[in-house]
């Protein structure tokens, strides 16, 4: 691999005060040129000439991710759900060895009235270090339904770049469920273009921060079509001195009358030195719309902690139980028993390592 790329990612569409250092994130000398391919079950990638044009789909982390893709030179995977076909599922398992620094693009075309579920799992040995970058671009045509599930279960030394861009046609829907549980640094972005009327986006993000973990996230719903709907929800736990920056933007464009957008975050702080930053943002160029945003940030109630400890739990056990309850609620939404079991096993391993160290 050659010289790395200096990147600017997760840039807010409307900038706030520079001294807050929340407008964007700068990364230095990023390299991702190792060959990399996931194991795939279910719907297989297209071979030869592929369908769909994905080059114009903007993503949440920004254009520098496209530059990184060009430098990496790893051909994109193209997955297609045929028009009006049966419900289909593709499972992509990204196995990350120690020292790997790699980038993979995944392009998804859901043709008219098709239904497709994509489950992506990122795994590695517990102490592995490296960089895993995945950019997913989705084109959902009229009436199509796409559900994307991403499970980040990487080792404690990994850095993750997880980027998504989506375009939704008339009546199309894209649902995204993400669980970010591992890695030392997770950078994530999503941008959805609700292009046509009655298109919709639903995003649920769960994260578990421990020790020095960093989460830097940027989610944007652009409403162009009439009566389009978006929902962006973040739910996480920050322990010890973990830190998180969550940017959530709902942008009502001219012509999006009758549209609705909702953005909400719920954060539980279980560390005295945990750092939580949130920027809920609503932009509006249309009158007949409804936008809501809010954040709930708090610590574990002292009375509840006292009650649990009075029932024979240690404080550490009580905190772990509350953490597991939050993660389990999201894990139960995966809808794939095998994947849910792997997430539960990973959580058990996380708690074991924390207890040992």
Describe the protein's architecture and organization.
The protein contains 4 helices and 19 strands. By secondary structure, the protein is α/β, with parallel strands linked by helices. The strands form 3 sheets. The chain has a 9-stranded mixed sheet with strand order 3-5-7-9-11-13-15-17-19, covered by helices on one side. The longest helix is centred in the last third of the chain and has 20 residues, at 337-356. It is globular, with a radius of gyration of 20 Å.
Summarize the SSE layout with pairings.
Elements: E1 5-9, E2 25-30, E3 39-42, H1 64-72, E4 77-81, E5 88-95, E6 101-110, E7 115-123, E8 129-140, E9 145-153, E10 157-168, E11 173-180, E12 185-194, E13 200-209, E14 214-223, E15 229-239, E16 243-252, E17 260-270, E18 275-284, E19 290-299, H2 302-310, H3 315-331, H4 337-356
Parallel strand pairs: 4-6, 5-7, 6-8, 7-9, 8-10, 9-11, 10-12, 11-13, 12-14, 13-15, 14-16, 15-17, 16-18, 17-19
Antiparallel strand pairs: 1-2, 3-5
Summarize the structure.
Helix content is 15%, strand content 48%. The chain is α/β, with parallel strands linked by helices and 357 residues long.
What brief labels describe this structure?
357 residues, alpha/beta, 9-stranded mixed sheet, 8-stranded parallel sheet, 4 helices, 19 strands, globular
